[in-house]
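Running log. JK asked me to keep both predictions on one page so they can be read side by side. First protein, sequence followed by its tokens:
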Amino acid sequence: MSPTYYSWGAMIQRCANENHIAFFRYAGRGITVCDRWRGEHGFENFLADMGERPEGTTLDRRDNDTGYTPQNCRWATRKEQRANQRQPRKRNSDDAIEQPEVRTQAA
């Protein structure tokens, strides 16, 4: 199995398999995979749109609140992904969820 195929398959599983450990963080939040990347020719379309996965990268969504589409996905290093990740929600003493802090980069 190629690294590209592995990334495609993992993306599909996170968004379609209710038994996947990360399902609630993806499909459970409304994150979907575009129709072009699903179905009979899904992998071929994914490969045509994204190209082979470069060494040292994994699939990343530019906007973490929207789904997997050619416009929203890129191959990114772990460092690039860390700079783009959602902040976990914090709980206050009353066990209510607080809004996450927004990180900004210095100009």
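And the second, directly underneath as requested:
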Amino acid sequence: MLREDAVESDEIWTKLKALVAEVLGTDEVALSRETVAADVDGWDSVTHVEILVAIEQTFGVQFRTSELAGMQNVGDLVERLERALH
């Protein structure tokens, strides 16, 4: 778990890209703050749940349903991770 130490934004992005790529079964995935699931090949409703579970386990955070509903893109997700980890 990474929560014990403050995690910098670059570290979050690096780990997030690696997690998403792993769940999608690809070597690399391009993500930006504006990226939404529909922009990424293979990111469907099932992999969406798998990605969120992997994020919660890796970063040692737990999202409430209301938080998840408010996330519109990857940038929103990263902002919530930054707040949770600092």
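Observation for JK regarding the second prediction: Residues 9-24 form the longest helix (16 residues).
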